[in-house]
Every structure is written in C-alpha cells, then in structure tokens.
C-alpha cells in the first residue's frame, strides 16, 4: 500500500471580489483558484506551470494559509491546515516555508543577510547568541554564500545572492515542505540554472518536499518529478514529467511544450501559437475554460466543462477530446 502523501489538496478554492476599474465585471467574484485537487509525496518535487494570471501563485500561498481560502482543504502529513488554531498553525509553519520570486522585496532592507536568516531561529525559540550565529553562518555556506555575506545588506548583494539568502532563510528552520513560487523569474538567465541546481542539491541533502511554481516549462522539466498544468484557476493536465512530454493530451499543454526549445540539434519544433489573449480572471464562462483559444474546440467544449479524469495510471486530463473521451 503506497504511503500517504505529505501534502494533499482537496478542492481548494480562492475567490476575490473584483474591485478594480469601472467596467461590467466590477463587484463580481474572480475565481483565482477554482476547486483544485492534487497531492505531493514525501521527498517529491511537484511542478506547477501556467501563464501569468492562471492562479498558480495564489494556490501556493493559499495552501500555506498565507491567503484565506474560500473553500476546500489542505492536509499536511494528515493534519488539516485550515482547521488549526492560531498557535498550532504557528508551530506548523516551521515545517512549511515559502520562497518568493522577488528576492529584494522579500528581504528587509534594514537587516543584514545574517540577521534575516537567523531571525526565525530566535522567533521560534530554537537558538540565540552564538548558537544562532553558528547555525546561520552554516546555512549561508550551504547555500553557496561566502562568510563575509553575514554583515552585508540586501542592496549590497546581487539578485542571485539575495535569492540564496531567501533560500537560506526558508531552510534554517529545517522544514519538510517548501513552496518555491517563481524563484528564478527575477533573475538573469546565467543565474537561473545555478539557483535551480542549488534547489535540487538542497532537496536531496535535506529530503525536502517541494511545490515548484513557474511559467517556464523547460525549467520545470529539469527539476520536477510530476507536473501539473494550470489554466484559468484549474488543473487541465497532470502527469509524471517524462510521461507529460512523451504523451501530451491537452491542447494547452501542447502549446506550452511547443515553446520549450528543442534539445536535439537539427530538429526544430513547430511552435503552436494560441489565438486570442489570456483570459480575464473576472470574466465568467461556460464549458471548458480553454475553449475560446483552443483550435480543436467543438460545441460540447463550449457548453460542458470537462472534469479532470485519469486516462492512464498517474496521467490526468480535463479535456473532452483526450483519449477515452467522447467527440465534442
């Protein structure tokens, strides 16, 4: 019998009230995350991909209850996170940490790198004084930073160094689960691979379970064990990494994969360019959320929302046209 997943998300929902602008959508609910369910095994990296505005960052923050959920449940090692009282949730936060995409805004400009990383040890009563200093310096070194970085402020560091400080701060409490929310989006291309490689090394060293959120499917392919593809607040496909690239079932996933550069010289890929613009999250719709941009959409796609279903072991898709589905 397989072990219980460390993380289980059940029909997670996060809606906002649209208060922006003066148009007809003002005052309506924005379905940022709309009934998403998935799980992450202990020690696994689950990659979550999708274009900007699809709700993937909101999902990650809501899972940790940094955003108040509208509905659904999230279980961490069997415990319902949303049912915990304030003190119990505070204790559990030692086990769950987040790495945000903008390293500069993630750090207090008035705190040195050492102070930023070591602060959590003191807040949670784990270490003070020399012991705090020792553990902080050790974690900074593990994250590839020189000893002199301890006394330097964020404005004295490069973006890559700042992100390493943010990673060290997340790991200083020895968590079991990390949400990495677009951790390389604000970095130069030359630094992105270094940070991804560091995260892989840290996962192996500390046995971390990770939700890696990104719009870059090529980078997610490098680091993730399984991949979930998100569109307009919901999952449209999920599969083990190799399976997703070998047997892509959803038209939106095919378009994303077509944008990933080919690794085979002399074999350029045909780029699939989607028609239309990314959808307005405040706009309501019927049927499949992807049908306005789907080149294969039929009448059924416009009228009936497809459910996320398993078409082969571990491979789920929400599409009427996928294998085993009816004609639209």
Quick tags:
12 strands, alpha/beta, eight-stranded mixed sheet, four-stranded antiparallel sheet, 22% strand
Description of the structure:
This protein is α/β, with parallel strands linked by helices and 328 residues long. It has one domain (7-95, 175-317): P-loop containing nucleotide triphosphate hydrolases (Rossmann fold, 3-Layer(aba) Sandwich). The chain is built from 11 helices and 12 strands. The strands form 2 sheets. It has an 8-stranded mixed sheet with strand order 6-7-8-3-9-10-12-11, sandwiched between helices. A 4-stranded antiparallel sheet has the order 2-1-4-5. Helix 4 runs parallel beside helix 6. The model has no long low-confidence stretch (mean pLDDT 89).
Average pLDDT taken over every residue: 89
The number of E-state strands comes to: 12
Q: Which residues sit in consecutive blocks of at least 5 with pLDDT less than 50? A: none
CATH class: Alpha Beta
Globally, the shape reads: globular
Q: Order of strands across the widest beta sheet?
A: 6-7-8-3-9-10-12-11
CATH architecture: 3-Layer(aba) Sandwich
What is the assigned CATH homologous superfamily? P-loop containing nucleotide triphosphate hydrolases
User: Would you list the SSEs in sequence order as H and E?
Assistant: EEEHEEHEHHHHEHEHEEHHHEE
The whole-angstrom Rg is: 21 Å
At CATH level 3, the topology is Rossmann fold
What number of structural domains do the residues give? 1
Strand content: 15-25%
Class per helix and strand makeup: alpha/beta
């Amino acid at each position: 019998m397989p072990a219980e997943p460390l993380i289980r998300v059940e029909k997670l929902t996060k809606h906002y009230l649209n208060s922006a602008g003066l148009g007809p959508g003002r005052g309506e609910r924005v379905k940022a995350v709309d009934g998403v369910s998935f799980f992450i095994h202990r020690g696994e990296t689950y990659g979550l991909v999708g274009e900007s505005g699809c709700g993937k960052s909101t999902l990650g923050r809501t899972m940790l209850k940094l955003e108040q959920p509208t509905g659904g449940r999230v279980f961490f090692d069997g415990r319902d996170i949303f049912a915990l009282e304030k003190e119990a949730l505070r204790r559990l936060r030692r086990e769950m940490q987040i790495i945000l995409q903008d390293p500069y805004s993630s750090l207090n400009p008035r705190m040195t790198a050492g102070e930023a990383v070591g602060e959590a040890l003191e807040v949670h009563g784990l270490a003070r004084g020399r012991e705090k200093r020792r553990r902080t310096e050790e974690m900074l070194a593990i994250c590839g930073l020189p000893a002199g970085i301890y006394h330097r402020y964020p404005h004295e560091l490069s973006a890559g160094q700042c992100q390493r400080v943010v990673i060290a701060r997340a790991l200083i409490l020895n968590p079991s689960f990390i949400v990495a929310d677009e951790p390389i989006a604000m970095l130069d291309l030359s630094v992105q691979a270094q940070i991804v490689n560091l995260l892989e090394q840290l996962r192996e060293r500390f046995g971390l379970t990770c939700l890696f959120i990104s719009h870059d499917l090529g980078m997610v392919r490098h680091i993730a064990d399984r991949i979930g593809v998100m569109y307009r607040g919901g999952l449209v496909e999920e599969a083990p990494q190799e399976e997703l690239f070998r047997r892509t079932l959803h038209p939106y996933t095919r378009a994303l994969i077509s944008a990933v550069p080919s690794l085979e010289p002399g074999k350029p890929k045909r780029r699939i360019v989607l028609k239309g613009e990314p959808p307005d999250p405040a706009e309501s719709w019927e049927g499949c959320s992807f049908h306005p941009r789907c080149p294969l959409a039929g009448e059924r796609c416009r009228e009936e929302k497809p459910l996320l279903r398993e078409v082969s072991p571990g491979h789920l898709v929400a599409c009427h046209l996928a294998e085993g589905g009816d004609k639209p």
